[in-house]
Amino acid sequence: MYIYFPIAEISLNLFIVIGLGGFIGFLSGLFGVGGGFLMTPLLIFLGIPAPVAVATEANQIVASSVSGVIAHWRRKNVDFKMGSILLLGGIVGSSLGVLLFAVLEKIGQLDLVIKLSYLFFLGIIGILMLWESIRTYIRSRKPEFYRRKLHDHNWLHGLPLKMRFRRSKLYISALVPFSIAAFVGVLSAIMGVGGGFIMVPAMIYLLGMPTSVVVGTSLFQIIFVTANVTLLQSVQTQTVDFLLAVTLLFGAVIGAQIGTRFGGMLRGEQLRGMLALIVLFVCIKIGYELVVPPLDLFSTEILK
Amino acid sequence: MIFVRFSSTNFIISRIAYIFVSAIFVNLFFCSASYAKSNAIVADLSQSNISINTDFNGASLLLFGSISGEQGDDIIVVISGPSSEVVTRQKSYMGGIWVNSNSVKWKNAPSYYQIFTTKPLSQIASREVLKSLAIGTEFLNLRYESAEDFDNDDYIEWADALERNMHSASLWKTNETTVQVMRGALFRTQVSLPANITTGDYEARIIHFRQGNFIAEERTAIAVKKAGFSAIIYHLAHDYSIFYGIFAVVFAVFAGWLAAAVFPKP
Q1: To the nearest whole angstrom, how far is the Cα of A210 from the nearest Cα of chain B?
Q2: B91 touches chain A (CB under 8 A)
Q3: Is A300 inside a domain boundary?
Q4: What total number of domains does chain B contain?
Q5: Among A277, A285, A286, which residue's Cα sits nearest to residue A133?
Q6: Does the beta-carbon distance from A10 to B195 stay under 8 Å?
Q7: Which residues of chain B does A60 touch, with a Cβ-Cβ cutoff of 8 Å?
Q8: Of the four listed, A20, A227, B42, B198, which is most buried by Cβ atoms within 10 Å?
């Protein structure tokens, strides 16, 4: 059964689209990630134009983040003060990102920048995660106790506009989370992701936030960043395919429920190791396409 | 005049249409004296309005009609879609990866261009005749925007690339020997519109040849429009984009909340 997506302007098998949503939903339930960084490249592989894939995925992430944040909110694992600073940065960054997106599309380099960003960030994150999970796995075999300092003091603590974040047990300059969120916001707009896979490590390692509040706070700010991207892309490029977003969402909601139940059966480092392999696989596929000579050096696109 | 319309386009229906048209042909045959010398072409389509709704996956339609011809006459049908702005890009190897480098923007390329013929094109008429009638993508007279040092050789290379890319997208194509003519009087051909077609006004030209010479031409229109839910979404997204964006966000928030409420975390 085929369904014609009015903004993407292509006809796709309905069950493949729901299945894709379900598969990514399953992974996001299993690993506790948003899944945008897998969904957007897969949508592009399916033949959906990159601008539509990116903008539509932002729309879908709004829903998955709302659904995710509710559970964390109930457990009071959201630092709203930190989240507000992050979302301010995120809105500034993602607005810049949408502008940059339009410029890149105009000069015909959008696809390249999307692919290079994926290659770079998925590569780094994949390798770090794989390394970390292997190390944890080895360490878990010979138990060893050590105590880490809460956080290290460095030049970041010398910046002005210091604020106290009670839930995160931090007293740092608001400029640090603001700039990190702005940077991730730009990537979020260009790559069609929530940015959790960059934001979460940044919050832990750069800001030194306690891991318990990191995911909830990250999801909280992702809602606003992706809502902003959805709104701006709707107005500027008209590339949000509502029908596609709803179809993917339908699959993702069901997939996430199944994934969450499976996730409980596996150990943390096993999950991270598997996720790392998936991330590296997508990364290698994108890299391969950039390096291998294309079948036809020329490509044509109908503009209007 | 013959007017036969069918709302559906599947194969069986098209066979029925064929029989129906054949029946009309018999009538026409007996009273053909009055048409004999007028060279008139009468043409119609099984569907002249194509609706792109959410279940759209391409369309197939029957173009048929009559000519006042003789045994052995040829017909060329040219169907062209709305003139569009099209960009062709070339990749080059830079720093270890393939990157879009040069590009040519075509200002008036048809978004769809298919030719249907009774015989291979070269056997129907000479290049000069085809050129004078503007039949074939090589005679499209494309306007373009490009880098300043763009000579004729470059044009040939880029126009070739455009043709090749449009062909692989099933948009530009020459379908030789797909038009059937019966007793030099009735013709029919099956036209397929792929799922990736552009909306707008399409034109079908039916051109009649006898021994390499042009006899007559007739034109008919096909309208391709988005319809139903698909049209509503497209219209809202383009004409009320702010409300569309707000609605998309609100809907997503609601859907996310609903998902969390229906499936509580274990």
Answers
A1: 22
A2: yes
A3: no
A4: 1
A5: A277
A6: yes
A7: 252
A8: A227
Can you read off the two tokens belonging to residue B23? 């029946």
Q: Element (H or E) spanning A12, and its range?
A: strand A10-13
Q: What rounded mean pLDDT belongs to chain A? A: 86
pTM: predicted TM-score of the whole model, two decimal places: 0.81
d(CA A126, CA A265) in angstroms, rounded, equals: 22
Residue B37 lies in a domain: yes
- Please indicate, yes or no, if residue B186 is contained in any of the structural domains: yes
Q: What percent of chain A has pLDDT over 90?
A: 36
Does residue B103 lie within any of the structural domains?
yes
pLDDT, tens only, A257-274: 888 787 777 777 777 788
Lowest mean pLDDT among A24-33, A86-95, B156-165: A24-33
Measured from the Cβ of residue B94, the count of other Cβ atoms closer than 10 Å reads 10
Host domain of residue A14: 2-291
Domain containing B200 equals 11-226
Query: Measured at the alpha carbon of residue B120, what is the angle toward residues B117 and B122, in degrees to the nearest 5?
Result: 115
3-state helix/strand/coil string of chain B: CCCCCCCCCCHHHHHHHHHHHHHHHHHHHHCHHHCCCCCCEEEEECCCEEEECCCCCCEEEEEEEEECCCCCCEEEEEEECCEEEEEEEEEEEECCEEEEEEEEEEEEEECCEEEEECCCHHHHCCHHHHHHCCCCHHHCCCCEECCCCCCHHHHHHHHHHHHHHHHHCCCEEEECCCCEEECCCEEEEEEEECCCCCCEEEEEEEEEEECCEEEEEEEEEEEEEECHHHHHHHHHHHHCHHHHHHHHHHHHHHHHHHHHHHCCCC
CB B206 within 8 A of CB B77: yes
pLDDT of res. B34: 45
Does residue A54 form part of some domain?
A: yes
Residue A31 belongs to a domain: yes
- Residue A123 confidence (pLDDT) above 80: yes
Question: Which one of B55, B58, B249 has the shortest CB-CB distance to A62?
Answer: B249
- From chain B, pick out residues whose CB is under 8 angstroms from the CB of A245: 248, 252
Give me the residues of A, 250-279, that contact B with CB < 8 A: 253, 256-257, 260-261, 264
Q: How far is B6 from chain A, CA to nearest CA, in Å? A: 23
Residues in chain B: 266
- Report the domain count for chain A: 1
Q: Which residues of A fall within a CB distance of 8 Å from B108?
A: none
> B73 in a domain, yes or no?
yes
Is residue B86 within 8 angstroms of chain A, CB to CB?
yes
- B-contacting residues in A 190-249 (Cβ below 8 Å): 223, 227, 230-235, 238, 240-243, 245-246, 249
At A153 the pLDDT is 61
Most B CBs within 10 Å, among A94, A234, A240, to test the B interface: A234
Higher-pLDDT residue of B197 and A171 is: B197
What mean pLDDT comes out for the span B236-241? 94
Which of B249, B253, B262 to probe by mutation at the A interface, max A CB count within 10 Å? B249
